[in-house]
Design brief:
By secondary structure, the protein is an alpha+beta fold. The chain has a single domain, classed as 2-Layer Sandwich (Alpha-Beta Plaits), CATH 3.30.70. The chain contains two helices and four strands. It has helices at residues 13-23, 49-57; strands at 4-8, 31-33, 38-40, 63-66. The longest helix has 11 residues, at 13-23. The radius of gyration is 10 Å and the shape is globular. It starts with a strand and ends with a strand. The relative contact order is 0.32.
Length: 68
């Protein structure tokens, strides 16, 4: 099952591109969408939310939480 995280702080396509670029370092197959504001990692990736937030903290005021 793919991992999904809600991403707070994304407001435009530029945000989506910045977030996707940062998260590709964790999983080259990550998909980031604005509506809903979400990052979906590939099924074979196991990425802890702490690693996602560490990557996001380097690029701006974004915050990930595990999607319900």
């Amino acid at each position: 099952m793919a991992q999904e995280f809600q991403i707070a702080g994304m407001h435009c396509g530029g945000c989506v591109n910045r977030v996707a670029k940062a998260l590709r370092n964790l999983d080259a197959g990550v998909t980031v969408t604005l509506d809903p504001p979400r990052a979906t990692f590939s099924q074979d990736a196991t990425v802890p939310v702490e690693a996602v937030n560490a990557a996001l903290a380097k690029i701006g005021d974004y915050r990930a939480t595990v999607a319900a």
